[in-house]
Design a protein that fits this description.
There is one protein chain. The strands form three sheets. The chain has a three-stranded antiparallel β-sheet. The chain has one domain. Helix 1 (3-20) packs antiparallel against helix 2. The chain has helices at residues 3-20, 40-51, 64-67, 71-75, and strands at residues 31-37, 78-79, 111-114, 117-121, 128-129, 137-138, 147-149. The chain is an alpha+beta fold.
């Protein structure tokens, strides 16, 4: 991926978040830390500063219980749709997050942009569940994500 593509994607994401407004609290996601001013100029400045430095892979040490999950156990962890970011809004999309484990070894810091201020969203174990068992039938091919029963 080229830097320009990355910058465009980051700017588009920030712009989209700014247009949508805050919905993290409604989804049950808690903000941590202080809200910081955020705009496109700041984003470009941070990207320029990072571009001058050598890449440093994120360091992550997962708890043994998470790091040792096999395929089936990791696949059993599901994000609860009722905790989706922007899940209550009349939008064509919503944000659901992956749990650390099998293929996802490094956490991704997620921020929500509201009124020009970015605030990091905290991880909350209540947003995931492992309770699903058995099988899941769906209504039709166009709605694979909408279970008819579960």
């Amino acid at each position: 991926m080229q830097r320009r593509q990355l910058l465009r994607g980051m700017a588009a994401s920030a712009t989209l978040q700014a247009l949508l407004g805050g919905d993290a609290a409604a989804a049950g996601l808690k903000a941590i830390g202080q809200a910081e001013a955020f705009d496109y100029a700041l984003l470009k400045g941070r990207a320029r500063a990072l571009a001058t430095k050598a890449y440093q892979a994120p360091r992550s040490v997962l708890p043994k219980a998470i790091d040792s999950l096999d395929w089936d156990r990791h696949q059993a962890i599901r994000f609860r749709p009722d905790h989706a970011l922007w899940g209550e809004d009349e939008l064509r999309f919503r944000a659901q997050f992956f749990h650390l484990g099998l293929f996802f070894k490094s956490p991704v810091r997620i921020h929500e942009l509201v009124d020009g201020r970015a605030r990091e969203l905290a991880y909350d174990a209540r947003c995931s569940t492992t309770a699903r068992a058995g099988f899941r039938a769906v209504n039709c091919r166009a709605t694979w994500a909408s279970p008819a029963s579960g």
